[in-house]
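To assess whether ligand presence alters the predicted conformation, the chain was also submitted together with S-adenosyl-L-homocysteine. Input:
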Amino acid sequence: MKNNFEKKLIEIAKRVNIEIDENGAAIYRQYRNEIEIWNKKVNLTSIKDEEEFIVKHIIDSLMVLKKIEIPYGVKIIDIGTGAGFPGIPIKISRKDLNVYLLDSNKKKTDFLENAIKNLGLKETYVLYGRAENYGKNVHFREKFDYAFARAVSALNVLLELCLPFVKLGGFFVALKGKEPEEEIVQSRGVFEILGGELRDVIYYELPFEIKRSLVVVEKVGKTPEKYPRREGMPEKKPLFMK
Ligand code: SAH
């Protein structure tokens, strides 16, 4: 029996041509329940309204899969994943992917550990710590086909935090708002410093005319050893070209 949340999710997803079946919808309901329970003690999301949760968290995350063709079975990382966006919805829809969820907030990674266990998600790994440190670790550096980040920082900061994780020929995709242009201009030159090349900016619309974009960066060269700089520096002194 589908409950209200599940019906609404399936219906709203259809409006943007995303197919969610009943099994999928039940997993999303459980995911939302987990978030609601934990939200009482850990600040996971400020979005309480059901419809808003569906659109701004679930659908927004799933739009990545509509717009980006991720090959079968590859390794992806969601940097600054928070309560799991976009990483968990991507995993729920694409069971074949190896998904790493990274966050520097222990309460959030505790939530994620618990959630992936309860949702029964396989090949999903939670990393607690800062991107600056994992990015320098040989086990994680240049090991991912795709890196994603939503609502973590400005693009020039994100490039330093995220590009080190991406393999040559892989991609970093930033989930951005309706007008990413200013951040792109501010990142001029920074792409090159870190071995990236701006490939595409994809504009799209969520239900209720909410506008978003994806900034797609290809890893075309190795990231120099000195990046990312030590903890806090990417944010404090963002790379910038005059
Ligand atoms: N991506 C989620 C959460 C955004 S909030 C969403 O869109 O809903 C930003 C998250 O990034 C926070 O949970 C914060 O702990 C994490 N974060 C910020 N800087 C980080 C860093 N340098 N390394 C790892 N996580 C970081």
